[in-house]
Amino acid sequence: xxSKIGSTVLGHPRIGPNRELKRALESYxxxxxxxxxxxxVARRLWEDTWRGLAEAxxxxxxxxxxxxxDHVLDTAVTFGAVPRxxxxxxxxxxxxxxxxxxxxxxxxxxEMTKWFDTNYHYLVPEIxxxxxxxxxxxxxxxxxxxxxxxxxxxxxxxxxxxxxLLLSKPSEEDFDPLDKLAELTDAYEQLxxxxxxxxxxxxxxxxxxxxxxxxxxELDALRNTYRRLGDLAERPAILTACYFGDPGDALGVLAxxxxxxxxxxxxxxxxxxxxxxxxxxLRDKALVAGVIDGRNIWRADLDRCMTAAATLxxxxxxxxxxxxxxxxxxxYDVDAETNLDPQVKPWLSFAAQxxxxxxxxxxxxxxxxxxxEPELIEARAAVADRVRAERVRDNRVRARLxxxxxxxxxxxxxxxxxxxxxxxxxxxxxxxxxxxxxPQTTDVRKARAALRAGRIDAATYRQRMRDEVERxxxxxxxxxxxxxxxxxxxxxxxxxxxxxxxxxxAATDNGWVQSYGSRCVRPPILFGDVxxxxxxxxxxxxxxxxxxxxxxxxxxTGPVTMLAWSFVRDDQPQADTARQVALAIRDEVRDLExxxxxxxxxxxxxLRELLPLRAEQRPAYLEWAVESFRLATSGIAEATQIHTHxxxxxxxxxxxxxxxxxxxxxxxxxxxSRMEVLADLNEVGFDRxxxxxxxxxHSPRVPDEEEMEELLRAALKAVPADRLWVNPDxxxxxxxxxxxxxxxxxxxDAAHRTRP
Length: 756
Prior knowledge:
CATH architecture of the largest domain: Alpha-Beta Barrel
Oligomer: single chain
Number of domains: 2
InterPro entries: Cbl-indep_Met_Synth_N, Cobalamin-indep_Met_synthase, Met_Synth_C/arc, UROD/MetE-like_sf
Cofactor: Zn(2+)
Pathway: Amino-acid biosynthesis; L-methionine biosynthesis via de novo pathway; L-methionine from L-homocysteine (MetE route): step 1/1
Binding site for Zn(2+) 1: 645, 647, 669, 730
Active site: 698 (proton donor)
Helix content: 40-55%
């Protein structure tokens, strides 16, 4: 008889409450520690996670959720999908893994892109006719046995076979990775068998790809795969997790499959609950009702969550409480925030609090609400206080939005703008620039830490940052770049920096979330109406411009990205919040122009990220996303050149929106994909300036001049020289100067050699 799964979460943060994994990884990569040191840090982290979740009262603890870099890459390694160019490097297993993630001097890394509509990045597996799947890594089994020795029974978590292949990239044209599904399923069968023999009672297979539109052929593949896995004689019970949206027709397929449980996201699309009630095949299955939001940080309305879960009783053989998705996307513990706004803090729930919410609701569902009445009362008070808080609404902002006219989001014709900009800027063909940030040196970080600790005053800090700006400007002039940046030494993060200066945002000290590998971000908390009290960047851009005769770009973050990389209020439509942010950015653009800045870049790297997974929901999103960008960048002179930047996304789905942004120049990630995106731009007749990245800054390797020249010549086949810009893929903040300086010199030399 299958054991009950009970209250659970679908995954957990893995970087460590104090970013222990980040520090251990970077120490290992820098050669300051050895593999055994890194593995010891990792072991402590996953063991602490298992113990903590068990002690918190979860009925089922997820395991195999730790990763040294990325769980999709882990899946590729588990089943032997290691491209030959990495296998032939002759490295050990861990260093081969990191070569796939980060590249080496000789071999570029795998492509990287966004994990569905989140700000987490995954490595894109390469699957081709010669890919041979087999069970080559048994970490899932080993971790199960390790946890059992600690007295904790974990539920191993794996990326499901269909999602893994749907997220993969064919290594050859005209090849479909799904053609390898039967072979991959063989390897999954072997792993499930080994987990069964090790004593695992449940295994979780994550299939978030089912939240997107799926073809009849893909649904048939799902049906056949889960029939095969379900028919295995020796295996753990299978919990298939569908999150980030409604699984649509896949729900019926899985309900009919011979598996034991489903975990469903009831937060992203609450109407999914209605589909559950109408699906009879679930009545002999366990259902984990994902009523606790795994992606946002607002304290749950426990009464409403309880009601939502209770309505499903009778629709499944067992109903238990869970999170909507893995808690990978939220910080560890709100109690670690000692400086957070005291009114806002009780409104919040990070991973530790969400686990407690799951446990509380689980008890209420099993034993009745009265056993957790104190917790329910506390939650009601916090939710009510947030609703009543006066600071959430700013009537000045709302009145300004109400007064907007259609022409406030429109610029003059592009041809006129281009002529005015050419006269003003006088740039050569293939102008060179960077995306914004330069490496943040140890001295810069020490100065910021000293300011926070009160060891230096604000005036001293500003002077040190001005000195750094002067150094960065001098370096760019020496390299020979055409359009310069001030380097952003004063900024801790491209979103948090602005959030700390805007009304309506709150910032954390320890609210770190993994973006990829060792890269962590601290998303600010957008809790109320947004307003700009004073200029945010003008001082720095104007100082940089006074140091050079070359144009300096003002650097801003766009409204969509401000939302995507923040924890956003859920009490009003995102479109309304985006327009509020757009007004604040609009004011900054105009002030930069007034200060003599002739080029302003408004970054929107997250434009694709927020795109709904279902096609029918996309037009409404793209309409407000484009409109908010245009609101932010209109109302300025024709001669002021607007740039935007997009990175690490599949651009084909938003290509029309990129055109509609009406930016004068768009820079995009293209180095890892070898300029593939340019075909999409040509297909829609894109006729603006474009800067496809020729330097992949997410890898430590330094591309040589010939490699970048080859990319530029490939780009020139798609983009004429008078519209082509030369730049890296992204900002340089995470790299070191010994990497950046030679790479930028190679990039500039490649541009000079390629110019007509």
